Every structure is written in structure tokens, then in C-alpha cells.
Amino acid sequence: FVACAWVAALVPRAEAPRRESWARAARLLEAHKGRLLVALFSVHVAAAAVACVIDWRYPFSHNQRVAEYLRTEGYDELYIVADEDAMVSPVAAYLGRKIYYPRGDREGTFIVWDADWRYWPQESALDAARRKAVERGEDVLIISNYKLGARTPAGVVPVTEFTGSIVGDEDYYLYLVRHDAASAELPRDTPP
What we know:
By secondary structure, this protein is of the alpha+beta class. Helix content is 45%, strand content 15%.
């Protein structure tokens, strides 16, 4: 905008607008362009100050804090199921290891948007975590950017939550899925 205003001051004037109302507006803008530019800059400086204060007081995203928490508390060694994948993948980057994404039904450190990726996964993050807990014979950690529900199911322990970030999609909720409880809840094949 500043560059346009600068160039406009150097370019010869075109003929006046044909409508009188437009011509009046053009004359008014021309007469007060300096004041209008200062007012516009003042609004931008005030908005930048507000943005700086918000950025100072609140984290932009919690992904780095989640990775630090996982390392500190020893959860980084657990198998991790992540949903929604695009919002949780920065945690994998900070951990420097692969995590499981139910939407693509694969492990990775980043998202691959290919034919295998689904907007709606075939199974929920909770069901995927239960399945992985049984397959692996160990507890599994879920990292999601949404709460699993008002009441967590049996065998699922809320670990902690990271909320209040500027990017609301990057608030995180951590749950531990117990292997023994997951084994008890999965259906068993019964002979006919």
C-alpha cells in the first residue's frame, strides 16, 4: 500500500472520475492523504502492539511443550497414536520419532496426503489405540487436539492437557490406554 501511494504521488493524474460523488471523494482523499496515511499507520502500530502482547502472554502452539513433557515424564518411549494428524505431527517432529496416524493407517513423522489418507478414519483414535495396545502388548499414548469425551472410557487414563494456545487447533489432550483394559474390551472370536 505504501509503495502504491508513493508511486501514485509520482504518476501524472488521470482524468477526474465522471461521477460527481467519486470526484468529491477523490478530492477529499487528495486533500487529507497525509493524515489518512498517518492514521492508517497508527492503527497498524496499535494492532501490532496488541498482537505482541498476546504472543508474549500465550504460546502460539503447544507442540514443543508437549514433546518436552513427554520426554520429562517418560511417555516418549510409549507407542503414540495421534489424531488429528496434521495438528499433532509437529509433536512427532519435536520428538524426532514416528507416531501412528489412524487417518492414513501408518506410522510417520509427517503427514502424507495420498490415496490412503482419509478425512474420516476407518476407526477412531481410541479404537486404534486399543488395537495397537493389544497388538503390541503394551500401554499406548493418545495425543489428540480434541477431548475424547466428557467421560473417559474404562482403561483410558487422562494424562494431561495443554490448552490456551493462540492456535486453538494446537491445544493437546493426552490419554494413556492401558494394555490390560484394551485386551479385555476387544471382541474375541468365539467358536460356533
